[in-house]
């Protein structure tokens, strides 16, 4: 195929992808969940966190019928695998646990977690398969859970935030306090906070605790409208970040 025709074809695909999905109804329970984890984490951390999520799945993913999983931060291709049952995702992840020999060997290399979410053309002018461009599982109102060990180098999240909001999806991120690569430590936290998600910074061994603490009520947050107000007295010109903790009533 002539190179110009391939370029035009990719542009048309991009336009079609960005066209509004009028069938998306955010009032419906999330049909799809994506569990994404860094290859820099230990297999134990990933399996423990998955187990913690599995024990409370009836509280937060009762409406989900599609479960995707993907490993990132390694030199191979990022391939999202979808299963139609939570039990099946267990087998998929246990067969694809982190492997240090496949990881990035330099701490200056940023995480490629953006590639899990972002739609972008490759040099071959084909489209990178990612969560929001998949044709297998519905993405409207979906829930994305990311276990992050390596920080990305990208700081601009405007396009991804717009993409997640466009599909009425929710992003939750648990970030390691002992990162394997340092650059933009607030990028993914900011992305979660701008998409109605939750962000946590934890030691790796506490990921499973964070999974139970933060994610048990995600379904409740997804289904209802919630608001809060804050009185403050501040006269400086510098931008200040305000952090608000939300606790569940026992």
Automatic annotation (TrEMBL):
GO biological process terms, alphabetically, are: innate immune response
| Ranges for domain DUF7154 | 175-248
What's the name of the protein? DUF7154 domain-containing protein
The species is Caenorhabditis nigoni
